[in-house]
Structure formats: C-alpha cells, structure tokens
Amino acid sequence: MHGLINRAVQSFVSATYGQSCWMRVTDAADLGFTEFEAMLVYDDAMTTRVLDALCAELKRPRAEILEDLGTYLVSHPNMEDLRRLLRFGGDTYVEFLHSLDDLSDRVRLAVSDLRLPLLELREVSSSEYHLHCYSGLPGYASVMVGVLRAVADDYGALAFLTHEGQQGEVEVITIALVESAFSAGRNFDLGARKP
Amino acid sequence: MIEIDDLAGMLGTLCPMFVLVDGGGRIAQVGPTLQKLRPDQPMPGKDFLEVFELVRLRKVSTLAALLSLAGAKLHLRIKGEPHTALKGLIAPLPNGQGAVINLSFGISILDAVRDYALTSADFSGTDLAIELLYLVEAKSAAMEASRSLNLRLQGAMLAAEEQAYTDMLTGLKNRRAMDVLLGHLASGDAPFALMHLDLDFFKSVNDRYGHAAGDYVLQQAACIMVEETRNDDTVARVGGDEFVIIFKHLIDESVLSAIASRLIDRLRQPMIFEGSVCQISASIGTALSTQFQAPKAAEILNAADQALYEAKRMGRSRHCLYSSFLGQRVQSAQSQASPH
Question: Would you list which residues of chain B are within 8 Å, Cβ to Cβ, of chain A?
Fold first, then answer.
C-alpha cells in the first residue's frame, strides 16, 4: 500500500485521537515502527493490521472510521493542500462530481505510483447522482463518502450521501443534491501559494 | 462575411485574452480576461503598442511591422505594473481590416493568477492553465514529501555511519575505523606512531568475576587511554582486549615511551567492580611510520605487533619499540616456536 495512504491514516488518527492512540495502534498492529513515510510503499497487510487495530482501539466499525478519515482529508487544516487539489476539480459541486471520473488519472499525474480505483459518475437527474467505485482498494468507497460530504460543505452545497454497498462489480454511492448554493462555502483562491 | 462584432463575440468565448486591432493599429476590442489585467484602464481605443511592448523586437512600432510577424511567436509585456510577460500570436484580418492577436501567460501564469486574482472562469475550457496549476501544486506537495524523506534518510545514514565506526561497548573507534584511518595515514606524508596495546590478565577477570566485570574493566581502560592521549590521537578497540592508538605527527621515542609508561601505570591500578577487585595490566608495542621507506598499513601494524610480542616476552607490563633487528629476531623466534 502506498505510503501516502498509510500516512493519511496516521495523520488522521494522530490529529483526531491523539499521538498516544496512534502509538497504541502501531503497537497492536505490530508494525515495528511508528511513522509511515509518505513516499515509500508498504506491504498491504500492514495497512490491514493498522485498520484492524484502530477498529479494536476505538470500538467502532471500519466503514464509519474510514468515512471520518475521508472527512478529515478535506476539512482538517493539516490537509489544506489536498483540499486545494480537489477544488481544482471544478467551480461548482456538480462540476467537482464530474471531475471524479478523472481523479485516478489526476492522482497518477502527481504521484506516478499511486494507483487509486476508477470512479464513474452517473447522472440520474440534475439532483441525483450515482458514483460507481471500482475495486482495487478495500474501503475506498467508505472514504469517498466522507470526502464527498466534506467537499459539499466546502462548496457550500447541501447534499445527502448514502453508501449503497456492493452492486455487481462496483460499490455505489448515491448523492442527492438538495441545494447547490446552500451556504457560502469556503474560499478557493487559485493563486494562493504557500509563503 | 462575418462582422467584426460577431468575430469579437466568438473570440471572447474561445480565447478570452484576444486583442482585435483595426487597420490603424488601434485596439477595437479585447477579451474579458485580458482587460482584467488593467481593470481601471479600458484598452479599446488605445494603440496596441501603447498598451503592450514587444520584448525581443523593440523596433517594431507600426502595425505594418507587427503584421509582418504574422504566425511568429511574439514575446510581449504589458506596460505598467505589474510587468506581466505574455506570449502572443498574430493573424491579419482580410482586406487590411486589422488583425487578431491572441495572448497567453506562458510560464508567467503562476504569478499572474496571484497578481490578478484569476479564477478558472477566466480561462477558456480548452486552456490547460488550470491543469498546469493543479500539477504545479500537486508536484510541489509530492516533492516536499520526498524532500522530507530524503532529509530523514540522510540523518539516519549519518547515524548509521557513525555507529559503523564506533565500538559500542567503549565508545572508542572500532577496527573498521582504525583500518580506514591507518590506510589514509599510510598513503599520506605526515609521520605518525602506532601503539598496539594488549590488556594482561583480562581473561582471568572475565573468568573470575563474569562478563559484566570484564565489560566494566574494558570501559575503564578505554577511559584511561582517552585521558592519556591528545584529542587528535585515535584510540580504537580492535579486538576483545586489544587496542590500537595512533599518534599523528608524533614520532618522538621518549615522549611515546613516557605515554606508554603512564598508560601501563594507570591500567595496573586495581579497578573495583561491585566490590570485587579487578587487577589487570597492559603490554604495549610501538612502531613509527618513519621506520619504513614507504609505510604500508599492514607493515606498520605488523611491526607494532612484533614489538608487543617482544614486550610480552620480556614479562608483561612492558613497552617495547619496534626495531628492524627486533623484527628479524621475532620472526626467527616465531618460526622456531611453531615447527608444527
């Protein structure tokens, strides 16, 4: 599993539940180290052990934790860089949803060895969309539910998301868009660069 | 025939940084994004060369001269602050009606989006500007992650190198470090002395009081050797109870003998470990780089070794300086002592 994914889990746990919780998780997962490197690749089994240990530590189901991870990736100040990259997807939430078709290609342009599963947006009506998540990364759809919910807030859109589960070869997320300009949302300044 | 206004409308959609100039070189219309660069100074009505300057072809001052550049890549700059660099392409309109000049930011786009607060709506849908900005940010983030990994790896490498040259029990240099230094010195011009020091009775301390006592004695002996030598000298533990001390720029036999005597005196002092009295001593053999025409590391080590052998033969707690005569004697003694 790519270090960036492991690092995301580490960052989420440390920021949300504290460093001591992360230490207990790495200990229980028998990692032999406590810091994932973002630019190295690790054995998939390590990630699985970390997530299992985390579920046991928090006594919460995996899907729920992964959804929170998705929300964290977009909304936490630590992750401002990632939020900006996602906002390059479009000027509105609907444009962003359509840009998800290209997400795995965009990710690969930035980090060539990070392969994310294909996503496919199906427009049912102007207020209902289905996102098909192809396989390749267990739990990816759960993370995406959290991401989509947080990005909706970021654009100021009001949307209801439902993880419909596995349907054939894809996992399906339903996005019901109630109001695309519900609140002001957060600012996205194209030219904002880090000092 | 398409009307000029219709043309301007189309251009506004397709290339929002266009300039339409009339037959006299005056700006008729500009695209909305281009006007955004100078929001308080409407461009239409002004001379093209009043608003923009050509960077590489400063002499061009008429529309006719500009039109002669049709199809060529133009490098321009917008006058006034900020001096944003622009790239341009000029296409003449038929019948001397003027020309269309399409501009773009080129590499200045990073500054431009910041300076003019541009948004994705300011670029045409086919423009790769947004993708470029995305890539710059994504690659910068990835590069930053790689850079921080490199820094940590470099730190780990330095620590590992340090460890690889250190004897962990005593904190002295180890055999590998000594080999590297000696190889270096042997190939240089600076004279140096090499002492080979062997602890006497160390094995009996180990046998009687255990390894913890043995370790303690080694650490104390290491301390003594560091204290009795200069900062520039190198003290290395090269075997269980064997040490090598290298004195750079020191070949004075009387000074070396004095150091050896002090070392032996101090090492003979009883050491107390958890109530047990540990008694050791030391034998030392010394060789000088100047005793050889072209000293080789192995040669000097071997010479110090022979002197040490002689010191032990004379009854321990002794220091012996190598001499070529001694070398011959030791060699013959060794060959007699080991007939099998």
Answer: 110, 112-121, 130, 133-135, 137-139, 141-142, 145-146, 148-149, 152
> Quick one: B291 exposed, middle or buried, by C-beta within 10 A (0-12, 13-18, 19+)?
middle
Q: Is the peptide bond before B82 cis (omega within 30 degrees of 0)?
A: yes
Which residues in chain A are closer than 8 Å to B110, comparing Cβ atoms?
191, 193
Residue B201 and residue B109 share a domain: no
CA-CA-CA-CA dihedral for B131, A176, A79, A19, to nearest 10: -150
- Chain B residues whose CB is inside 8 A of the A38 CB are 145, 148-149
pTM beyond 0.90: the answer is no
Residues B216 and B291 in one domain: yes
CA–CA min distance A140, chain B (Å): 21
Pairing between β-strand B73-78 and β-strand B52-54 as defined by DSSP bridges: antiparallel
Residue range of the domain that includes B231: 173-337
3-state SS string for A80-138 = HHHHHHHHCCCCCHHHHHHHHHHHHHHHHHHCCCCCCCCEEEEEEECCEEEEEEECCCC
CATH of the domain at B56: 3.30.450.260
Residue A152 to chain B, least CA–CA distance (Å): 19
- Residue A190: list chain B partners with CB under 8 A: 113, 117-120, 130, 133
Could you tell me if residue B96 is inside a domain?
yes
Domains in chain B, number: 3
Query: What digits encode the pLDDT tens for the residues A47-77?
Result: 999 999 999 999 999 999 999 999 999 999 9
Q: Which residue has the higher pLDDT, A188 or B319?
A: B319
Does B168 fall in a domain?
A: no
Judge if B307 and B271 occupy the same domain: yes
Q: Is-catalytic flag, B252?
A: no
Question: Closest to B145 (Cβ–Cβ): which among A38, A84, A90?
Answer: A38
